[in-house]
């Protein structure tokens, strides 16, 4: 799925570092319940939120958590899975990958060893994944697009005039982008007077900046708004392009899904209109709990149920069949629209959790 680039690199994730996070003594006399976790792009803040969520829950349950960097490389991920099998882990979490079909043989080896599997952010496209925890990309993108259209109306006397809207996507070849665009189009198609000018931001601010600059030059005053699929890693580039053209970002009502520290800052400055929060911390936190519960014969979410937790940003979460695998549940977590539904300073947002580390 999408290849993310982050501006802030945690000391925890220095280049080439093999991550091993042991919650408690890793080699106690009595073997602890052990979870192996593979991540990608360890410098990205949302990946750091995955690790923090998993680490916090592992500490609560006295679990040994081993985190390794898969380097967004299928062969590397497969090697790590084989190592985990040799180490006799009790459960496995996939914290994102690029080639979601190529790693399926590794997932099936885990299945054969009867090791429960959870995935967060993106789901493998085969095998059995007991729990896939994420928000719905299409639905979340539609939610952000409705806010985007509302912004156009407010800036134009309550109407949507004829004009151009710029859509900055991540990557034409990426399933993440396809799902986001599908959600975007489900709303935009209701306004045939709008023409969509699409640019490929390649999941980074540099390419986003270039595409927005080019499209603003091409369409000029016809541009009514700029939609950025993932503001956490592409909105800053879009804002810079707008400002470099001598224009005000507020007049373009930038919206999208996935906020990140950069997005929180831009929302607070009024340079992003709205963005849907990615439940990064919560998905990892819950994944650890459900894997632990399943292994110990405790109740776990079942397809057809709805999970409700008072005060949780991810609640209510419907449990449906995971459409990408042969067997397993997709726990569809909620993501609030910021700042319309909750304030950007809300301590439950993982971006604010990370800032307090």
Describe this structure in words.
- With 357 residues, the protein is α/β, with parallel strands linked by helices.
- Helix content is 37%, strand content 20%.
- The N terminus is likely disordered.
- Taking Cα atoms only, what radius of gyration do you get, to the nearest Å? 21 Å
| Overall pLDDT metric | 92
Large-scale geometry = elongated
Helix content: 25-40%
What is the total tally of β strands? Answer: 14
Number of helices: 10
User: How does the helix and strand content classify structurally?
Assistant: alpha/beta
Largest sheet composition:
8 strands, mixed
Tell me the strand order in the biggest sheet.
2-1-3-4-5-13-12-11
H and E string: EHEHEHEEHEHEHEHEHEHEEEEH
Low-confidence stretches: 3-29
Head-to-tail CA distance between termini: 28 Å
Name the beta content range: 15-25%
Topology:
Layout: E1 34-39, H1 45-60, E2 64-69, H2 74-86, E3 91-95, H3 104-112, E4 117-120, E5 128-135, H4 137-155, E6 163-169, H5 175-188, E7 194-200, H6 205-219, E8 223-228, H7 231-244, E9 255-257, H8 260-268, E10 274-276, H9 280-295, E11 306-307, E12 317-321, E13 327-333, E14 337-338, H10 350-355
Parallel strand pairs: 1-2, 1-3, 3-4, 4-5, 5-13, 6-7, 6-8, 9-10
Antiparallel strand pairs: 10-14, 11-12, 12-13
Helix pairs in contact: 1-9, 2-3, 4-5, 6-7, 7-8
